[in-house]
Amino acid sequence: MTVALMRAALTALQPTAPLETAFTGPGLTAASVVKREKPRVGRNGIKRPVKGKCADVLKVFHELRVKGTESKDLTTAIHAVGEKRGWNRNNVGCELSAYRRFHGIGRPRKG
What we know:
With 111 residues, the chain is mostly helical. The chain has a domain of 62 residues. It is built from six helices and two strands, in the order αααββααα. β1 and β2 form a beta hairpin. α4 crosses α5, α4 packs across α6 and α5 runs antiparallel to α6.
């Protein structure tokens, strides 16, 4: 295959619509797809949620850590808070794992 044939094939594969309009549909605009209200902070390969229940769970984790809750007691404490607020127990556990990875906290050791 020659270089000219490869260029012709690549030119034929290029999208006809610009990227901003390729993701629009009913109820979506290019501005809503491309821009965010707040930038998401990323650390250790984890992106922190900006709003919603997941962000609320992470906020409570942070408050418990600031109060000085030990890593062993953090799981028990957050599940107690989650039951009071009506959060899904499995989601709270997943967010706890993400919080630990985000902040580089190791798992608690037995003993």
